[in-house]
Amino acid sequence: MREKAYKLLAIQENITNRSAKDLIDRGLVYSGGKKVVMARAEMPARTRFRVEEITKMHVIFEDDKIVAIDKPAFVTSEQIAKKRGEKLLHRLDKETSGVLLLVKDEDFRKIAIEAFKKQDVLKEYIAWVSGSIVEPLKIDKPILTIRKQNQAYSKISTDGRAALSEVEPLMIEGKLSKVKVKILTGRTHQIRVHLKSEGSPIIGDQFYGGKPHKRVLLHASKIALLGYSFESKEPKDFKL
Asked: How deeply is 167 buried, as exposed, middle or buried, from its count of CB atoms within 10 A (0-12, 13-18, 19+)?
């Protein structure tokens, strides 16, 4: 006998079907050591699941203008904004952890948006990637983003917008490298696409050719703008 994965998970965890589907969609459910990627996949009725716990988000800094959140993986930027009741200044992908900024003051928001447009914002990330990166890289390749049914896909294209990333090697472990990436533009999936284009996709980023892992190993470690500077340490789940 077989049944849809989310229905089996709902029975196992004693939760609603909707909650079970959400857990699978967020990438938190495993079976037999492998991530369950399709909530509606037919699975044996005796299948047992393991559900990963989400690290709790916490506030790095808050005043009357801005809020810096230490975002955990598997939580969307929109979910955090809704919970806080404040507007997002930028976004991080669902499985990307690190510094996420929200704003309280509308005048400050407009000024901050201009700072982003003028590239007056420092954004640094840490990533684990495939391959050995031993020398600094400057990746200057235009990115074209295609959006279909609420999903975005980006690629290197002469029809795209200018995109510039600076990559600095931090560590090599076997055939994998830990790098720091500073992005000087803010294109959709910029770091993921740029690293893929160099033959070094991010570990866990199967959407862009990365090796399977429990999460995408990309962490927003630092952001600075308009006299503010915030940092986030690598979380416990940011490991190979």
From this structure: buried
A 10 A CB-CB count for 4 gives: 18
Q: Which amino acid is at 213?
A: H
Active site residue 64: no
Mean pLDDT of 33-58: 89
* 202 beta partners: 129
* Active-site hit among 22, 64, 93, 105: 93
First to last CA, the chain: 36
Instruction: Please give the Cα distance from 143 to 161 (Å, whole number).
Output: 5
State the helix-helix crossing angle for 17-25 and 5-13, rounded to 10 degrees.
Answer: 110
CB atoms within 10 A of CB 143: 22
Q: What pLDDT was estimated at residue 160?
A: 96
The pLDDT of 34-52, averaged and rounded, is 91
- With the C-alpha atoms ordered 209, 215, 218, 220, is the resulting torsion angle positive or negative? positive
Which residue, among 113, 119, 99, 115, has the nearest Cα to 184 in the 3D structure? 119
